[in-house]
Specification:
The protein is of the alpha+beta class and 204 residues long. It has helices at 33-40, 83-87, 108-151, 162-169, 175-192, 198-202, and strands at residues 5-10, 44-46, 49-55, 62-68, 73-77, 92-95, 105-106. The strands form 2 sheets. Strands 1, 2, 5, 6 and 7 form a 5-stranded antiparallel beta sheet that branches. Helix 3 packs antiparallel against helix 5 (175-192). The longest helix has 44 residues, at 108-151. The termini are far apart.
Length: 204
């Protein structure tokens, strides 16, 4: 059936992210309230969006949030032209109207362009997120290395990994220090264990 896209005006607050529902697939984890309501009633909806990472003002936790490109609007595919059914969906205010006063239909090429723009923005966001996580991981590695340097004996040979030295010397340490060193080694292994960063382990 041929797709027919129309813009709807959404009620204030309905483009916010909906409450997490563990029953839904991962692809719908960050959907908005208006998207959830439309999909629940069988409508194909597209709300062009972008993502940002925000720091929680109390916990400093990094939170991923999704925001609409077009505040107050979304697009719904109505191949059966069932406008009245869609109007009854909670959060739908009205249709964007054209010069002939009827609902304005958008060609597929316009929707595809918005999909492409959203995809490009999403890829840029994921790259920035990856870089942030990598920087945090490297900072944590440096912090753990520094803790090991304070605990272990001086005079480590340059070619000997600090982790290897710790594993060799661990039996000579007191039980409390031994437990601390084992914890640091475990954390370092978790941070540098994948094949892509195996070379980092040699530099510890």
């Amino acid at each position: 059936m041929k797709s027919r896209w129309y813009a709807i005006r959404t009620a204030p607050g309905y483009q916010r992210m909906a409450a997490l529902d563990e029953r839904l697939p991962e692809s719908r984890r960050m959907e908005s309230i208006i998207e959830r309501n439309c999909r629940k009633d069988g409508f194909d909806i597209f709300m062009p969006s972008f993502y940002k990472e925000l720091k929680h003002h109390r916990t400093n936790e990094i939170i991923e949030k999704r925001f609409p490109f077009l505040v107050g609007y979304a697009f719904v595919n109505l191949p059966r032209l069932n406008f009245e059914e869609l109007r009854r969906v909670d959060g739908v205010v009205c249709f964007l109207r054209g010069a002939n006063y009827g609902p304005l239909e958008f060609p597929d090429v316009s929707i595809e362009a918005l999909y492409f723009a959203e995809h490009e923005r999403r890829q840029a966001f994921l790259y920035e997120q990856h870089c942030r996580k990598e920087n945090e991981r490297h900072e944590q590695i440096q912090h753990l290395r520094g803790q090991l340097r304070k605990i272990l004996p001086k005079g480590r040979k340059a070619r000997v990994s600090m982790v290897d030295q710790a594993e060799r010397a661990i039996d000579s340490l007191s039980p409390q220090i031994k437990e601390r060193v084992q914890k640091i080694i475990s954390e370092l292994n978790a941070l540098t264990g994948d094949a892509e960063v195996e070379n980092l382990r040699q530099a510890i």
